[in-house]
Design brief:
Layout lengths: L1 E9 L4 H17 L6 E6 L9 E9 L2 H23 L3 E9 L3
Antiparallel strand pairs: 1-3, 1-4, 2-3
Helix pairs in contact: 1-2
Length: 101
């Protein structure tokens, strides 16, 4: 399984709106592409939140080819929507992992 891990730090004043948007709009848009096997949204605990609130969104793909399709066909548009909604009030760091079984 491929895990697309996105760590996001939001300004504290938008954290609640960001979570609501993720749950009601962004994640459903991603799932509707038909490429994802699942997802999880988490808030990091025991973090210094002086500079914002940190979340981790994990998206699961059955194959690296499906991940590549997402990146090639959808990622740029999804990122544009996030910046249109929240501007510079968040930062994201992305990693891709493969489960070891």
């Amino acid at each position: 399984m491929i895990i697309y891990n996105v760590t996001i730090k939001t300004d504290a004043d938008i954290a609640g709106d960001w979570v609501s948007w993720m749950q009601s709009e962004h994640i459903p848009d991603l799932i509707n592409t038909g490429l994802f096997a699942g997802h999880r949204l988490c808030r990091l605990l025991q973090q210094d939140e002086a500079e914002g609130v940190t979340f981790v969104a994990q998206y699961y793909f059955d194959t690296i080819a499906l991940y590549d399709q997402y990146i090639d066909r959808h990622a740029e548009e999804m990122r544009k929507k996030a910046f249109a909604k929240f501007g510079g009030k968040f930062a994201a760091f992305r990693t891709v992992m493969e489960t070891v079984e």
